[in-house]
Design a protein that fits this description.
Blueprint (H helix, E strand, L loop, with lengths): L4 E4 L5 E14 L3 E6 L3 E4 L5 E5 L6 E6 L3 H12 L12 E2 L2 H15 L5 H19 L13 H13 L7 H8 L3 H12 L3 H18 L4 H7 L5 H12 L3 H6 L6
Antiparallel strand pairs: 1-5, 2-3, 2-4, 2-5, 2-6, 4-7
């Protein structure tokens, strides 16, 4: 992109990552800033700014999300386990390589219509909470995750019983009366995986049983809750190290 944006502001937050080239901007009254590739933009609502290519010939490319202020407030409140004010990011340009990579992945997942709801919600809440905890001016203290084992077992049982459905994080939160943030954090601490990854694990194990019965791979993918065979194959191989076809035909090498 080589477009130059006039001075403007957003009603929402503008959170994103520059993944190619570099953007320059004038922030607030006159502060001149550079956002190189790999940097994170965290523009607060109502903050006047511009945006233009640092190098007109090269331009820049970015992925941006515009979450409502109320959503960031909700995430901060869930992290702290009490109602918080709307977060404020004192620096509009953040250098956090790991988080920048996660924001890029999150954006790709959110724009993909086939990404499961629970995975989209987990990505969004996880990354927004990390951004607040690492870079907001007021960073909430995270309460202990102890004493949540009965709720973790409830979530696990629910995932096992409903693995074929497009389960949402909101659904699990209502089931356990845990906030989305503390649900994901507590579940991962207990099980070693976030809920959406554990759900995929359940689906892969169920798929193995169906493949042994000679059911076609495309049908197995749909029966266990994956939206198509390609996605199923990707998840299956990520867990087991070989494809459903290799497993079904007996050519998979078991280590």
């Amino acid at each position: 992109m080589t477009h130059s944006f006039d001075r403007h502001a957003h009603e929402e937050f503008a959170i994103g990552v520059i993944y190619s080239g570099a953007q320059a901007l004038t922030y607030r009254r006159s502060e001149q800033l550079l956002m190189p590739s790999g940097s994170i933009a965290a523009i607060n609502p109502a903050e006047i700014h511009t945006g233009y290519a640092a190098n007109v010939e090269d331009g820049w490319a970015y992925r941006m999300l515009y979450p409502a202020a109320e959503l960031l407030q909700e995430v901060a409140s869930e992290v702290a386990d009490f109602r918080c004010d709307i977060p404020f990011f004192p620096e509009p340009v953040i250098f956090d390589q790991g988080l920048a990579h996660q924001i890029f992945q999150m954006h790709c997942a959110l724009e993909n219509p086939h990404t499961p709801v629970i995975e989209k919600e987990t990505y969004l809440f996880s990354i927004l909470s990390q951004l607040i905890l690492r870079h907001a001016d007021s960073r909430p203290v995270i309460p202990s995750v102890s004493g949540k084992q009965p709720m973790i077992q409830c979530i696990r049982d629910y995932l096992v019983a409903n693995y074929q459905r497009n389960i949402s994080l909101t659904e699990l939160s209502s089931l356990t009366n845990l906030s989305k943030f503390h649900l994901c954090r507590s579940f991962q601490a207990a099980m070693g995986l976030p809920p959406h990854a554990y759900l995929n694990l359940i689906r892969v194990h169920r798929a193995k049983r169906l493949l042994k019965l000679g059911i076609p791979i495309s049908q197995v993918a749909l029966d266990v809750g994956f939206y198509d065979q390609t996605h199923f194959t990707k998840r299956f191989k990520a867990v087991l190290g070989f494809t459903p076809k290799q497993y079904a035909t007996g050519t998979a090498r078991m280590y």
